[in-house]
Amino acid sequence: MNLPDDLDFARREGTRTIRRAAALCAVLLVALLANATRVQIFESGRYGGNPANHREAIDRYARPRGDIVVDGRPVTGSRYTGGMFRYERTYTDGPLYAAVTGFSSQRYGTTLLENAQDPLLAGTDPMLSLFPLWNDFVRRHPPGGQVVTTLNGAAQRAAYRYLAGRTGAVAALEPSTGRILALVSAPSYDPGELSGASASVAEAWTRMNGDAAQPMLNRAIRQTYPPGSTFKVVTAAAALDAGVVWDPDERTMSPNPYLLPGTTTWLRNETYGCANASLRYAFEWSCNTVFAKLGVDVGPRTMAATAEGFGFNDPGLRIPFAVAPSTFDRKLDQAQLALSSIGQFDTRATPLQMAMIAAAVADGGAVQAPYLVEKTTTSAGETVSSAAPHTRYRAMSPATAAVLREMMTDVVRQGTGRTAQIPGAVVGGKTGTAQHGVGNSGRPYAWFISWAQAHDAAEPAVAVAVVVEDAAGERGEISGGGNAAPIARGVMEAVLDSQPGYGPNSHGSASRPRSGTSGRLWPSPK
Amino acid sequence: MADIAETAGTAHTAVDALVTVAPRPPRRRGIECALIVLAVLLSVYGYCAVGLAHDGTVPPGTVRYGAGLGLLALLAHGAVRLRAPYADPLLLPIAVLLNGMGLVLIYRLDLDTPGNRAAPAQLYWSTVGVALFIAVVVLLRHHRVLQRYTYLCVAAALLLLTLPIFFPAVNGARIWLRLSGFSIQPGEFAKVLLAVFFAGYLAANRHALALTGGRAGRLRLPAGRVLGPVVAVWLLSVGVLVLERDLGTSLLFFGLFVVLLYVATGRTGWIAVGLVLAVAGALAVGWLEPHVHGRVTDWLHPFASIEAGRGAGQLAQSLFAFAAGGALGTGLGLGHSVLIGFAVKSDFILATAGEELGLAGLSALFLMYALLVERGYRAGLALRDPFGRLLAIGLASIVALQVFVIAGGVTGLIPLTGMAMPFLAQGGSSVVTNWIIVALLIRISDSARQCHGTAVP
To answer: Where are the transmembrane segments (chain B) (predicted)?
Structure first.
């Protein structure tokens, strides 16, 4: 090459500067790649989880949601919206099942079953796909699965119908398994009104939350009430198991009225014949004085232990959503213990807890873990998981349970719970009227807990608890027998009618004599 | 890119060593043709993937789209084969692939914004772009012809830049000419004209610029006499910024001038002066101009609007889109970058690529741009005439700076400035300009490789 020196120098110099400029471009490229890696790999999770990032929700509502099934039929559905969130939840009978399904809202999230089974219903549960890792890799979701509930539609409808226009709750169980047959809270609400993301949803949300009647409060599992006299089942079980009472027909040494120990307050009864009454009589006619003294005689530790044997003070109960723990105080003086033993002071229970007490009596002293989900399936119906019934608590000995069954049967046959009688079935129950409010000024709660067994059945089919907050009638006359027992009877009848061989047509037939005539004839323990 | 340059350089030297035996270098038009076919097939595949993801069927226009893109590419290839047979065989396939992918991304976003379809117009502008590409390749016999029009170019550029001031501002920036229905961004064309001017001016004055001036320590400072043009360009940039509120273009012009000044003179002092002026200008404007100031605030705190309860801003949505892509992306047609809203098909087009093609696809796109720039620099290195090499470096630097400014902006690396991603983004002026840039690079690389038939660098 014979270039002039100057040009040659300039060219070499130019080559050097061009290479440096190219190196600058390379630095810019590396900066871009490094920053893209930061955003797309290292910050990916944090940005993806940002509440203002709608991608998770878009993905979640891109497919129809799986359904919740009662009696073989879905009680939920999905509707195409055409909006950014493509599908929203619908309910075939929203208010009826609201205490079970909860809601699935694009704006306010999920509650109850919709919440507890959300991964399965939304289709994100890895159990739904045959090759979960592969689906993660290709970002494909299987359709949402189905949740098959334990509910008995007839019992649910009966409870809902009986509670219409009132404030209260019903919980019904199958004592031998813990299957929840009915769970109703009144007043109810329509979860379908909360499904979407529109302004009307926000409006409904504000309206429901501002409603003094609290329609979205699930009274069956999330509200605790003083159980009143229905708690005497627990006190009786404690007294019998602890040996404080050997023979239910023996007279107890209980004065009437009863001076609460360490105070000058006299505890009285609303019925007659309670002085030194036998346990059976006191149970049948709900003598406060007898049970208050029995509680004191049993002692605080044994009373608390027995209550916990029925499920009190258990914050871990899930059905599969959490149940508010029912409480029995462990540290009580004697006066407080006396009141706690008749379901007052700070003893509080959910309706589900009280149904578990009735179920414990019906099932020979064991409390089966209550559950709502029989099984979950894929959208094609293949089983993903099945319920495993198990005993959660030991409430009392089988012998004690047998005595309590007799006494509860007496209550319905001839005591305060006669309105719960069902032709053709043995029914045991216990009424309750719970004082509450400052100085007991509130309108008392009417309670009834019971179980029922068809004459030709091997074991009780249903245990139920009913609470009515706004019980009708004058203060003094309010009683579980008047307000709550007919509701319990309706629910129990619905369950018995749906049992095989116990159709509605057989009511009152000769083959099933009235319970009163055979109340003490027990089927052999299972 | 340095690595690529090294590797390619070695290969090139080896090939040239062989070539010294033969009288003429290989033309490699067959390789170009094969790569173009690959680029068209990739674009058609992307188009089908969008339709399959969205509707479950191959979109009805697939054949038309594929045939249209293929025809344009082959016409361009024919022009190169006839009039620039020694041109770099990578330039045209890269342009075809980027333009094809841009059309795919815009078509994909059209599906989510049915009321506002941009792909047909983009295809139309791409056709205009390719037509101009062919015109440049056919009509411009040698790049040195342009050197004659150095000062005409700067006059035209200034005219184009000042025109939009008399038109109403759109979305805070005065960069559009609205003429009976469609709009033009004259600033895009001004880039090419300014690159020609810078190359011509610096090629003529590089000795004066390089060899005069005093010293300050180890730095040789430029003389005051020749500082005039530099200050003039700086004022031009700031003027563009203040009058048109177009931070990106101003940054691009200034960066381009500093790079070319350095390449022409080899004086680090110019870089220092340039940086000082740039920082001073940026600080002053960032402080005084609320539009620019807001962009800087957004960059520093992209999620501030979320914390204030006003939902995600544009930059936050863009970052969400990139983050959602992860390593492999959601797949074409399966992302939600449309949440970005305004400018999703233009300034933020890269977010769609990032979300649906992932870091893998985004890196591939960056590397395509890097390769385009590298081929431009390589042509510049191989040329003997100062004007040609400065023009090649200038055009390649326009692409490099533009990609960095907008890609860095939408990924949160630097403050966001409105600018088109070359070839990918919706915008007729931008696509046409980029095709002209590629045509000029083809023309320059043809000269570079032809005259090196017997000379090894």
So the answer is: 33-53, 65-83, 90-109, 121-140, 149-169, 189-211, 223-241, 247-263, 270-288, 356-372, 392-416, 423-442
